[in-house]
């Protein structure tokens, strides 16, 4: 597992993917940083900029996840390097988790850069530390879930491009319950949509609420898709 | 060391490997021979745990591939048909990755990798990106990958594909060398290669095992009557009569006239008789100079063609199916 994690992690930087991811992320980061701080200053409340900023960053990160996950398995199959992995004395679970962790590590680094924002806020305004930590944990958890979806989709195809677009589509789909719940009037339906939605739970974290149920929801969501990735790869051996 | 029993693999309706059984003893070098699409690669992929069989069992050193896959995989070094190389890594980084991936626990990783690089002669390209290497070098990096961790069993799927003639000879010698301490299964559709390296040959055609024997036995048994090409300077009629008169000669046929007045004959003899000396004496008696005589030994090639050519009806026989389709289309 360590070997796979290490190789995958390095691969983000020996290939162009890591740079594309961080470049796109940094561009949006800079723009939102400016808008949040300067916009916040003009309206007189700097600290209110933080949840706006995180709202943007959250959206950007989520949409950039396909870049991280698209080649995890598809490229191995295309280059036939999966033969090396699958004929090595390594469990399929280790391979899947190793790859997942490498993408998650890159994602976490991106999330980690928000510490800079927090420091700036703390220096020039008032930082709600609990809220900040809540948002970071929330973003990390939802990222894990979506990376697991992306890895699963990557295991379904030999084409990176197909994997990227399908993952992008799947991530857009995860927002559907959010949109739906804003247009339905039945409160029962609203609650139901909130329960299945990946994103509505994030708002709890932004207000600094650490609900064990929410944490478990994201973790089990991640686990299910990692398990499905193992199964779909295993199935290919038998077909 | 390797035991395969009633191995069958179906891809949907197509039977790729059909009830194949064989054993490979420790220290043997066994050649897997068969035309393209015969099921060699599928069998190897099953043995290495990349694919699963539809039915049957395969075990290496007593470990069943399904029950204890990791134990089996630890024992095997595998070079697949397409070397599984990461094109964007350097040779060195790649081999280190493979070492860690295989969870090798040798005292000195770098020394081990250096040793393997020396053996397969890639030490001079260790710092280079794999994608930039020539096919020959890539193939050797693939072989190096299989050797990492000193596995007691090597499974090599067409190891000399894409190499130039000099490299082919080098790799063959290398495999022979490696085979001194290891069990090796190697596949090929190049007959001289198998003949040169392997002590034993398993011939597979349309997923079925059609022969399993030493190269000598295969040629001897399937060869039939020995025949010779004989070129003699002399009148055709008298020479034929003289040749027919030799004890043990079954048939004489004139095939060629390479020079004026000199004829080439194909002389077929009875099994296990050597008629060369008698032919010489006959020529001396006729005062007809013997220009050339050489045995038309039935090579492994003939054996191979006779073993694999005959059964067109086998499952998944593409040729036949496409003919049928064409016929249907014609109607």
Describe the structure.
With 239 residues, chain A is an all-alpha fold. Chain A has one domain (2-234). Chain A contains 13 helices and no strands. In chain A, helix 2 (17-42) packs antiparallel against helix 3. The longest helix of chain A has 27 residues, at 212-238. The radius of gyration of chain A is 19 Å and the shape is globular. The two termini of chain A are 26 Å apart. Chain B is of the alpha/beta class and 331 residues long. Chain B has two domains: 2-221, Rossmann fold, CATH 3.40.50.300; 225-295, Alpha-Beta Plaits. Chain B has twelve helices and 14 strands. In chain B, strands 6-7-8-3-9-10 form a six-stranded mixed β-sheet, sandwiched between helices. A four-stranded antiparallel β-sheet of chain B has the order 2-1-4-5, covered by helices on one side. In chain B, helix 4 packs across helix 5, helix 8 crosses helix 11 and helix 9 (236-244) packs across helix 10 (276-286). Chain B starts with a strand and ends with a helix. The A-B interface holds A 2-4, 6-7, 10-11, 14-15, 79-91, 237-239 and B 11, 45, 48-52, 69-71, 73-74, 76, 78, 80, 82, 84-89, 93, 97-98, 100-103, 145.
């Amino acid at each position: 597992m360590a070997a796979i994690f290490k190789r995958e992690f390095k691969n983000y930087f020996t290939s162009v993917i890591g740079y594309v991811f961080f470049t796109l992320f940094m561009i949006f980061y800079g723009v939102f940083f400016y808008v949040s701080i300067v916009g916040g200053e003009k309206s007189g409340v700097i600290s209110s900029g933080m949840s706006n900023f995180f709202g943007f960053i959250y959206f950007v990160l989520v949409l950039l996840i396909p870049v991280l996950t698209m080649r995890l398995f598809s490229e191995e199959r295309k280059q036939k390097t999966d033969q090396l992995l699958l004929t090595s004395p390594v469990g399929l679970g280790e391979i899947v988790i190793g790859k997942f962790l490498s993408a998650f590590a890159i994602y976490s680094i991106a999330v980690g850069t928000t510490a800079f924002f927090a420091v700036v806020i703390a220096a020039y305004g008032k930082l709600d530390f609990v809220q900040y930590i809540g948002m970071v944990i929330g973003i990390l958890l939802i990222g894990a879930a979506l990376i697991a979806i992306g890895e699963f989709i990557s295991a379904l195809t030999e084409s990176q491009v197909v994997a990227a677009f399908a993952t992008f589509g799947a991530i857009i789909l995860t927002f559907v319950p959010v949109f739906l719940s804003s247009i339905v009037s039945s409160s029962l339906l609203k609650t139901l949509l909130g329960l299945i939605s990946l994103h509505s739970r994030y708002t709890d974290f932004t207000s600094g609420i650490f609900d064990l149920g929410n944490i478990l929801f994201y973790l089990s969501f991640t686990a299910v898709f990692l398990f499905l990735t193992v199964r779909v790869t295993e199935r290919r051996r038998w077909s | 060391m390797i035991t395969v029993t009633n191995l069958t693999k179906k891809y949907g309706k197509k039977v790729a490997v059909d009830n194949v059984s064989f054993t490979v003893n420790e220290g043997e070098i066994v050649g897997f021979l068969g035309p393209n699409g015969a099921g060699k690669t599928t069998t190897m992929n099953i043995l290495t745990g990349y694919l699963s069989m539809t039915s049957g069992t395969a075990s290496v050193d007593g470990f069943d591939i399904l029950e204890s896959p990791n134990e089996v995989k630890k024992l095997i070094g595998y070079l697949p048909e397409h070397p599984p190389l990461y094109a964007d890594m350097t040779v060195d980084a790649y081999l280190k990755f493979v070492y860690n991936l295989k969870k090798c626990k040798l005292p000195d990783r770098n020394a081990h990798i250096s040793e393997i690089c020396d053996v397969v002669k890639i030490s001079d390209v260790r710092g280079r990106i794999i994608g930039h290497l020539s096919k020959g070098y890539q193939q050797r990096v693939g072989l190096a990958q299989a050797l990492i961790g000193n596995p007691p069993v090597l499974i090599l799927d067409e190891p000399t594909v894409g190499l130039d003639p000099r490299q082919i000879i080098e790799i063959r010698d290398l495999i022979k060398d490696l085979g001194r301490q290891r069990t090796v299964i190697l596949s090929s559709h190049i007959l001289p290669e198998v003949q040169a390296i392997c002590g034993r040959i398993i011939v597979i055609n349309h997923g079925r095992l059609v022969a399993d024997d030493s190269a000598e036995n295969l040629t001897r048994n399937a060869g039939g009557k020995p025949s010779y090409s004989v070129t003699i300077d002399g009148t055709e009629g008298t020479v034929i009569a003289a040749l027919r008169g030799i004890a043990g000669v079954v048939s004489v046929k004139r095939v060629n006239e390479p020079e004026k007045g000199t004829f080439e004959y194909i002389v077929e003899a009875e099994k296990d008789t050597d008629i060369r000396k008698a032919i010489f004496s006959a020529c001396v008696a006729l005062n007809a100079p013997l220009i050339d005589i050489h045995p038309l030994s039935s090579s492994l090639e003939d054996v191979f063609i006779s073993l694999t050519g005959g059964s067109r009806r086998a499952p998944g026989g593409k040729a036949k199916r496409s003919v049928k389709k064409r016929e249907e289309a014609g109607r």
